[in-house]
Amino acid sequence: MELNKKLGLNKNSPLVDRERYQRLVGKLIYLTHTRPDITHAVTVVSQFSSQPNKEHMAAVFRILMYLKSSPGKGLYFKKEANRGIEVFTDADWAGSIVDRRSTTGYCTFVWGNLVTWRSKKQPVVLEVVLK
Fold first, then answer.
1. Residue pLDDT, tens place only, 93-108
2. Residues of the domain holding 50
3. pTM of the entire predicted model
């Protein structure tokens, strides 16, 4: 994405072929599985799939130009003998010294390749009173 560029619904900009735009954005969404560096930009342009204009299509072409200029970047999925699914999870109990909230996290491996991950600070504090 162009730095500090805000895409919106510009009524003055001419519309482009919606099917072509949706096909390109769909392929980019699929590509984000191995190229997490384009995830934010693809999320932004996918919001305008119902009425894309020239400005939106230019943003899609900018993403494509970035991909063309950076081959070899992204996640590499290797073939392994271990053909299983492994999930690891962990949490800290009231780990934050500021607000005593817990943080949980998980990661998922398919055939030894990392495919999903997340960590999140819990929204509430649970107090346990021991008697």
1. 777 666 777 888 888 8
2. 1-76
3. 0.60
